[in-house]
Automatic annotation (TrEMBL):
Residues 149-384 form the Serine aminopeptidase S33 domain. This is DUF3887 domain-containing protein. Residues 31-111 form the DUF3887 domain. InterPro entries: AB_hydrolase_Est10 (IPR053145), AB_hydrolase_fold (IPR029058), DUF3887 (IPR024981), Hydrolase_4 (IPR022742). It comes from the Bacteria.
Amino acid sequence: MKKLVTLFIISFSLFTFSQGRKEIGNDFIKTLFIEKNAVKAHSYFDPSIAGEIKAADLTAVTEQIKENLGSFKNILEVNNEKDSYYYYSEFDKSKLDMLITFNGSDKIIGFVFVPHKIFDKADDKTFLKIKSDDIGLNGTLLVPEQDNKKKLVIFVHGSGAQDRDESVGENKPFKDIAEALFKNGIASYRYDKRIYSYPETFTEQSTVEQETISDAVNAAAYFKNNERFKGYQVIILGHSLGAYLMPEIAKKANASKYIFMAGNARPLQDLIIEQLEYIRKVDPSKVPEQLLETTKKQVSLLNSDKFSLTIPTSELPMGLSAAYWSYLMKYNPLDEVKNIKAPMFFAQGGRDYQVTEKDFSLWKNQLKNNKNVVFHLYPSLNHLFIKGSGVPAPKNYEIKGNVDQEFLNDLIQFVLK
């Protein structure tokens, strides 16, 4: 998926809610994208920041958005958190939120494009918030009322600020899987990742323990200790980073089964270079040569004797801190996975250029004598387990699809076994 341009985000001390903001935002979007009147749209901004962004800049943004996403079609829904309004908008190729922030005078002080944020409705009976350490995980719980198989699957995301559906553009792999499980009598819980809901909690000292592991373990503990789910098998499904960290999660979660979807077995820094080189080969515009060379230098430093906890984040890959990388440098999933005694299911897409068959083969070789493990390779599936053809490339994620039925059938069979 092409990287969306961020126009600007400016933080202000905000004041109380004022009527009419929803309509003001609607008018601003209509003026900018339908009337294509950037000068008029510019007048919606507060004078304190209007000098920082020109009407010509607004025009440039709309042109770039059109190039990436196609023409603006309409606003699907509007949600707000205090002074920030999320206009869920449809374009020809995708859907996303236009986030508009107002000040006390109902003038715009922030305008940015972001992935669609899910807002739980007060009457939504599937909403469940689980306490995890000092935060609350906002999630969706699906429990079949009929033909309930007494099995519950917990979803663990890949890297980055992922929502509960693990949305990539209009693709929602976790939602697809959860609904397929539900139709087959299997309960599930999927939650918004903490760095999605509470990005401010992720600091220079944070590691994958805070990003992923603790929340997965706490979610499992919640259901195992909840009287309503007494007698259920709790199963953990991890995708990408979530699968990579599964051996560490398993140490504390003590689940009945574990599902590894496109989990890397090799160090994360090795995959970064491999991914960038591949993307530059198939679409050079996505990865400038300077970015590739800079990342190679950062990875080289990370792998050298010079790496220490005092190295600035700016000198390390992916904008991640030394504390984050230090944790991963000490982690070896291939060693840890041997300690898992519960049944395991490994799935890999043949068109996945982010995590490849190299990793799948490493897992398979490491567990070749374990009779409780099953491996499935799906030649035509990508990293999201959506079927495709041709040369795999980032643009594939812009195409709306659904998780493959053959994979879903194998997954359901494993869960029910």
